[in-house]
Amino acid sequence: MFKNIILLFLMTLTLSACNLVEALPVSIEKAITAVRAFSGNEQNQAPTEAQAHLALEEFFVLLNQGQYERAVRLYGGSYEVLTYFNPDLAPEDKAGLLQAACELNGFMCLSPLSITLSIIEIRENQPQEFVFEVTFANPDGSEFVLGPCCGADEETMPPQTYFTVRVACDNDTICQVLDLPPYVP
After folding, report:
1. Which of the residues 30, 84, 173, 175 could staple to 55 if both were Cys, CB 3.0 to 4.6 A apart?
2. Is the separation of the CB atoms in 5 and 32 below 8 Å?
3. Residue 182 placed within a domain
4. Which residues form the domain of 94?
């Protein structure tokens, strides 16, 4: 199953590069359904790294493209800081809160440049959690670097290029990102 998802993902990326299919974001549900149908396995199975990776990538690509309504379904983290930053928005307006994060509040809604699995946490009767180290691409394609903040220098606050992002997946293979994009005050 894992190899099939990776193969499907790589084929989609390759075809996207050749403009033969619609570019990312790839629908996670479609990819998983296609792999299950292809492999003859329609049963729910434990989530895999590939499913978590796809959810993470699609979430950040959707934010980068301004598709906030679609990004909401892939975000399972807290909206508390966003409601604090945006008291004029209703806490139920999750798409509006994500839009404000990206367009007003200083969250860097960039596409991922690299995604590397760091840790898999398996807990009984709880969602499986994947922890990734992510680098992001600036609009010009260069690597995003979060520099020193608030009067600090590089010695006291070294530049950061890797960001930890958690993804939780339930047993129905629904994966949601738990962390917001990097924040620049």
Report:
1. 175
2. yes
3. no
4. 2-177
